[in-house]
Amino acid sequence: MTTADPTRTPGPARPAPPAGTSHAAGAPHIAEPGHIAEPRHIAGPSGAAGPSLTGGALLRLDAATVRFGQRTALDGVDLEIAEHEIVCVLGPSGSGKSTLLRVVAGLQDLASGRVLLDGADQRGVPPHRRGVGLMFQDHQLFPQRDVGGNVGFGPRMHKAPRDRREQRVAELLDLVGLPGAQSRGVAELSGGEQQRVALARALAPEPRLLMLDEPLGQLDRSLRERLVVELRQLFGRLGTTVLAVTHDQGEAFALADRVVVMRDGRIAQTGTPLEVWQHPVDEFVARFLGFDAVTDAVVTGGSAATTGWGGLPVPPGTPDGPCRLLVRPTGVRLVAPDAAGALRCTVAARTFRGGHVAVTLRPERGPELEAECALRDAPAEGAAVGVTFDPEDVVVLPG
To answer: For residue 7, is pLDDT > 90?
Structure first.
């Protein structure tokens, strides 16, 4: 489905971000899934790197609030998205992420607050006049039309000349990896091919903002991981501004320039994928990202903390006092069980996760821990091991 202003005729695509931009996926593992996208240069109104937060944003939400009876689905949300930026909204079911998308698309009315596109208040503007594209999880292709008819539907509704429509369709099918597929029927396409056609159709009217609702949710994991990298590269070439909603942390971290984590209708944290992964703002975000090794701690001397696991190093300069402490799996180092200063543990379980093995550890004191190691180095279940901690992967959460 694509919603776009029928008074706008397709024009040339916006230029891609400046040369030298990188779109390759980087590499730290997020809980189990995927990769962290490498940062791109995003030119704001002043030309400075990063999105503008002082005005001139392509999309801005001001205290956006939605209520369903007594339940508040969006609670005073403020959000800005710069031109060419890719923003992914994450959160558990009921956090408000899909409601946010529907509000921007004009499919859900606000109880209070504003949605602005290019600085214009969208109150009262119907979906088809907002100039935005919306792609759903289930594709919603027209079964009675062939691939070309699906992709060309938006430009046709915009009354674009036939030769221009055909050129646009051919260009987009080539971009999404389906060159020459215009005459193919929708029913004969695989799930991944349908996803590509749906994306081409959403891009065809050249929307100023493309919105994706769980765009890869119905695809198998290997195809999903491949397509998310292709999507980021494609959006970079086209200079597309994207607002995506997903429950998949790996998908969001691989696709986005900026991640927004929602909880109970509010934004819990926003930042680059690396910022959010390295510095979750609270225990909710940490656990949502799959980091479960969280415990009470008391920091003393600015460099060590007393925990249920014993003494742990913390980043230098950490304020003294009580706090909650997170230890990422990458910071749990396996050593000999009798190594000096090591916490003795028993291997409770091993989980194969492709490039590594997640090892669940039952310490002699304190809550369970998780470590990561190569398959060839993974200890057997029931084995005794020692654990030391890397301070770079110890995160102090607000107490």
So the answer is: no
DSSP code of residue 391: G
**Helices then strands, each counted (H, E), the chain:** 9, 20
CATH superfamily membership of 59-284: P-loop containing nucleotide triphosphate hydrolases (3.40.50.300)
Phi and psi, residue 243, nearest 5°: -120, 115
**DSSP symbols for 258-326:** EEEEEETTEEEEEE-HHHHHH--SSHHHHHHTT---EEEEEEETTTEEEETTEEEE--TTPPSEEEEEE
316 torsion bin: left (phi>0), alpha (psi -120 to 50), beta (else): beta
In angstroms, how far is the first alpha carbon of the chain from the final one?
45
Q: Nearest to residue 200, comparing CAs of 157, 179, 169?
A: 169
Helix axes of 162-175 and 191-203: crossing angle, nearest 10 degrees: 130
List alpha helices for 279-348, DSSP H: 283-288
Q: Distance from CA of residue 95 to its chain's centroid?
A: 15
Q: Please give the single-letter amino acid code of residue 182.
A: Q
Give the DSSP H/E element, type plus range, for residue 75.
strand 71-81
What length is written for the chain?
399
Residue for token pair 């109880």: 111
Contacts of 122 (CB under 8 A, 6+ apart): 106, 114, 115, 116, 130
Structure tokens at 390: 């890397």
Distances (CA, A) of 57 to 79, 119, 153, 354: 10, 7, 29, 40
E strands along 143-281, which residues? Answer: 209-213, 242-245, 258-263, 266-271
Phi-psi map region of 116: left, alpha, beta (phi>0 left; psi -120 to 50 alpha)? beta
The domain made up of 292-397 has a fold known as OB fold (Dihydrolipoamide Acetyltransferase, E2P) (2.40.50)
| pLDDT, tens digit (0-9, with 9 covering 90-100), for 63-120 | 999 999 999 999 999 999 999 999 999 999 899 999 999 999 999 999 999 999 999 9
- How far, in Å, CA of 137 to CA of 231, rounded? 15
Average pLDDT, the chain: 83
In sign, the C-alpha dihedral spanning 218, 221, 225, 226 is negative
Check whether 20 has a pLDDT greater than 70.
no
Q: How far apart are CA 246 and CA 224, in angstroms?
A: 12
* Distance separating alpha carbons of residues 214 and 196, to the nearest angstrom: 14
Q: Can you give the residue ranges of every domain in the chain? A: 59-284, 292-397
